[in-house]
Every structure is written in C-alpha cells, then in structure tokens.
Amino acid sequence: MYFLKPLSDEIRLSRTLFNRHKKTRKLILCSIFACIAAILQAAGGFLPGVGYLLSPLATGPILLISMLNIPYGVMSYLLTIML
Asked: What is the rounded CA–CA span in Å between residue 63 and residue 66?
C-alpha cells in the first residue's frame, strides 16, 4: 500500500523544520494556507471564466500543510470550510 511507504527526504526535512517553530508561527502559517485555499475556492464566483480553472488548485495548500503536520492540516481544512 502507498500509505505505508516511508516518507521522502524532502518531506522529512521540511517536517523537522516546521516542528522547530513556535506554536504561534505554526498557527499563523496554518491560517495563511487556509486563506489561500478559500480564495482559490471562491475564484470561480469572482472570475467566472478563469476562476473555474483556478478552483481545483484550492486543495494544494491543504495538502501542503497536511504533509507538514496532520493536525494542522485538519485545522486548516476546517478553517477553510468556515471561511
């Protein structure tokens, strides 16, 4: 199964760098990724032609923060839903 494979070195390095930060910086980074995801998701309503092409990119910030830390990824996902 794919989920049982070990992580690549780049993800492991970025995860250790992310865990070195204080909790405040982690929360701010989580909220920034949630705002980017909400803006990309709402792009279809604001820019009808090009926005529908940008809308699928809204999963990118959520996946990126989830690779760094799963609880912060879930928090960012829930914050995006609320936004």
From this structure: 5
CA distances from 63 to 4, 13, 30, 69 (A): 18, 17, 11, 10
Please say whether the beta carbons of 79 and 58 come within 8 A.
no
**Alpha helices (H) in the chain, listed in sequence order:** 9-20, 23-46, 51-54, 59-68, 70-82
State the pTM of this model: 0.81
Q: Tell me the pLDDT tens digit for each residue of 5-64.
A: 776 788 888 888 888 889 999 999 999 999 999 998 998 888 888 888 888 888 999 998
Report which of 81, 78, 75, 80 is spatially closest to residue 27, judged by C-alpha positions.
75
